[in-house]
Amino acid sequence: MYTTNASRGLPRHRSRHVAERYTRWAMRGLVAALVLTLMWLVLAFHLNGQWMFALLFLVLGASLAVVFTKRTLMSHRYIFPAVAGLGVFVIFPLLYTIGISFSNYSSSNLLSEDRVRGQLLARTYQEEGASFTFQAYREGDRVRLTLEREGEPPLEGEADAELEAALEGATRFISGPLDLDDDATRRIEIEPLHQALDAEPLEMREVIAARDALQALRLVTPEGLELRMAGLRHFAPMLDRYEASDDGSLHDRRDDRVLTPDRETGFFVSDDGQRITPGWPVAVGLDNYKRIFADPDIRGPFMQIFVWTFAFAGLTVLFTLVVGFTLASLLQWDQLRGKAIYRTLLILPYAVPAFISILIFKGMFNQHFGEVNMILDGVFGIRPEWFTDPWLARSMLLIVNTWLGYPYMLLLCMGLIQSIPRDLYEASAVDGGGPLTNMLTITLPLILKPLTPLLIAAFAFNFNNFVLIALLTGGNPDILGASTPAGTTDLLVSYTYRIAFQDAGQDFGLAAAIATLIFLLVAGMSLLNLRLSKVKV
């Protein structure tokens, strides 16, 4: 006899099968929707010329379809989200950064060559000596414009000849009724004017009030010459500056020169060697890496920052270990009362968000109004320049970072010390050993080995401690003579950030090369950490 579902009168195993069937169809529909979305992203990125992102989503969509449609790969469905996230947010950005490091990608080399060519061909210029004075006349609730050419200079070049042909001798024009309350860009046809209007023109204050609408007008003569506002009383013809040639070069009609595309540098170059911006990204091989070590204006600051980065990370780990280990040893003292209160107070800096503590310390170390200098001035009569002297700025960073990092070491050391057998301390007491002897001969040697991988991890974290540098010193004071934005307190990671986003040229290629070197260093530390942890790699 079957046990039925009370609501539907179906056997329990049949209702379970129906639910499983609906769940499978829902999952298949979800997977199909995700695949279609990814394919749409592939098409969108491909049409925009972003082939790397198109390839990423193509691989992601294809792997999603294969894993969730083949029964033999059913066991891989559970780890697919994690693997996909690793690929999208870790592996792809890493490969993309490495790829950029072999290019001249920067703020002046962002667009493709076709888009650069299109931008240059869209540029116009105002022909000198061919401006038109204009007057605005009220006609009901609308306005008419009259234009009259100022002088007729002799023909000197191809552009002047083209201008005269477009005007066909006409020197005065008039527009139809215009609404100057509309400041949208409009093309308005104008006609030759044969007699003056019998009306008073608008006053200058009215012209100024309607300036936005006038600047949006594109007045077109019957021959197709376009006139734009060039002053409060002038319109002028705007001519195409560049003209494309069959060989791919551009002719600069204003300066009468030829621009040739240089696909090694990614710029159009004039006859006299001048580069015309913007440019386009091109592969430069190892040039960015060579610049780091060969260019003295980059090599000097880079090596200084490189050494300081290692010193900062190493000294931070040392100072936090010493403070944390000392406090952990004191908290294990049997005669100490109120241990719970002391533990809570000493761990409090770890509970406060780091950026809040950093900003508080920034105010405390203020050279003019900070509490630190007020105390030092009152006690010793000195007011150190924490933010302008390189060595004092570095010392301040180490002090603040020690404060932020010692609670972590305190917790680690407390846990490891508690795992040490008490028999060892009792045997040491029998032999006459004191607290200092126990610390140096028992406690420290026994916790140092299991602590080593964690110290390496702390070193790697402080090696890339961007938040501390950005909020406390910003990398300042600057290194004099550097061709890139570099400071004496910069770490490699903040130095990379400043090159990529704070330099006027925004040299992403050089920044990516430094970021790749940072990745190799941190990867080496991680590999060493795994080796010391006795994990097979």
Automatic annotation (TrEMBL):
The keyword Cell membrane applies. Residues 306-529 form the ABC transmembrane type-1 domain. Keywords: Cell inner membrane, Cell membrane, Membrane, Sugar transport, Transmembrane, Transmembrane helix, Transport. InterPro entries: MalF_N, MalF_P2, MalF_P2_sf, MetI-like, MetI-like_sf. The chain crosses the membrane at residues 25-45, 51-69, 78-102, 305-328, 340-361, 396-417, 454-473, 508-530. It comes from the Bacteria. Pfam families: BPD_transp_1, MalF_P2. The keyword Transport applies. It is a multi-pass membrane protein. CDD domains: TM_PBP2 (cd06261). Gene3D superfamilies: D-maltodextrin-binding protein, MBP (2.40.430.10), MalF N-terminal region-like (1.20.58.370), MetI-like (1.10.3720.10). It is found in: Cell inner membrane; Cell membrane. Belongs to the binding-protein-dependent transport system permease family. MalFG subfamily. The complex is composed of two ATP-binding proteins (MalK), two transmembrane proteins (MalG and MalF) and a solute-binding protein (MalE). Part of the ABC transporter complex MalEFGK involved in maltose/maltodextrin import. Probably responsible for the translocation of the substrate across the membrane. This is Maltose/maltodextrin transport system permease protein. It comes from Franzmannia qiaohouensis.
